[in-house]
Amino acid sequence: MTTATAVMGASPAAWAQDTGAPTPPPLAQPRPPAPYASSPGAQAARFYQEGNAAFAQKRWTDAEAAYRKAWALSRTFDVAANLGEVMVRLEKWRETAALLAFGLRSAPPSAKPAQRDRTRHFLDETLEKVGALRLRPSVEGAEVLVDGEQIRPDDLADAVFVLPGAHQIIARKQGFREANETIVAAPGSSQDVSLTLVPAPVTPPSAPAAGTTPSPGSALTVTLGADATPGTQRSLLPAFVLGGAAVAGIGLGIGLTVTSNATSADADQVRGKILSEGGQCVSPGAFADPCDELASALDRVDTLGNGARVAFVAGGALALGAAAYVLWPVLLGRGSAETRTQGQPAPLQWAPLLGRNQAGVAVLGGW
């Protein structure tokens, strides 16, 4: 791809090629009209030259916009390297790493060593700020997504770059169960991520029973149809997760309750001291400081008490969810064979109960 000489002046783009400045036409000679339509290659060359001009003037945002247009039309090594170098200036590290790595991989033998060294220098600098993932789906042709963004199949052969932190990796393909992995990437790290897709079981479709469509605003209903066979092996991981969260919620409620009781005792002591000295909380008054301390303690008691009630409700709901997940197949197995043969669903309904002096969850089920 040919570029303008201006780019080879101050701060040249990494892969700009010096072809000499074109001679402008005489002023009296009108410019020829632009063709009605140009090829994608010609359009990419024009955007590439616009990017080079903006690069030479350090207009990084304009250079990025022009190079992106060229990249959309022509994914070539020179566009990738120049756009990647612009991304360095804009500190968009994930895209920088992907573009510069592509530029080095696809550079032709005719590329000058100085050009390669320049791009490698920026790539090495960028790799210290990102994590590199080598994604390995077990099934060929699987669709791979990183944080919801689909990865091009051609890019899976090389490293996929992410910013430091936690990332969700998903691989999916029709006829297989979705593979889901969560990884944590550190700056400058590199890791392999295996994504194992297991064939999905083939189950015959079952017609929904009449009258089972929930109305808007109704309670949450979990329905197991007639094709749910009791005794089918299920993973207990959801039950462990729900149970652990329930224990944490109840533990938090206990801790908040203990703290609330201690604070209430402190408030009683302050109140008793004020009364014993014959004072009262009026404004203005001689007991302003103790009264402020008492009001603050009472506020903390209310806040801690409310937090404890919310924690207990959440812990109880999570515990019931874990129990329902474990016991539901057993309860379903006790239903009559006639009911299951007729395809009638077994609903499980739950709703929270909150009041001034009570908190809990109501669960209704039929089997």
TrEMBL record:
Gene3D superfamilies: Tetratricopeptide repeat domain. Keywords: Membrane, Transmembrane, Transmembrane helix. The keyword Transmembrane helix applies. Residues 1-41 are annotated as: Disordered. The chain crosses the membrane at residues 310-332. Residues 22-35 have a biased composition (Pro residues). This is PEGA domain-containing protein. It comes from Chondromyces apiculatus DSM 436.
